[in-house]
Amino acid sequence: MRRPVRIAVTGAAGAISYSLLFKIAAGEMMGRDQPVILQLIELPDAMESLRGVAMELEDCAYPLLHTITLHDNVEEGFSNCHFALLVGARPRGPGMERSDLIEVNAEIFARQGKALNDFANRDVKVLVTGNPANTNALIASRNAPDLSPSQFTCLTRLDHNRARGMLASQCGVTARDIQNIIIWGNHSPTQYPDLHHATVFGVPAMGQIDTAWYRDQFIPRVQERGSEIIKARGLSSAASAAQAIVDQMHNWSQGTDPGEIVSMGILSDGSYGIQKGVFFSFPVRCNYGRYQIVHGLDISDFSRKQLTATELELLEEKSVVEHLLPKETEASHMNLTICLKSGVTLYADGSGPSAESKFMNNNRVL
Ligand SMILES: NC(=O)c1ccc[n+]([C@@H]2O[C@H](COP(=O)([O-])OP(=O)(O)OC[C@H]3O[C@@H](n4cnc5c(N)ncnc54)[C@H](O)[C@@H]3O)[C@@H](O)[C@H]2O)c1
Question: Which protein residues are within 6 Å of ligand 1, measured from CB?
Answer without folding.
Answer: 10-11, 13-17, 41-43, 46, 87-91, 108, 129-131, 133, 155, 158, 187, 236-238, 241
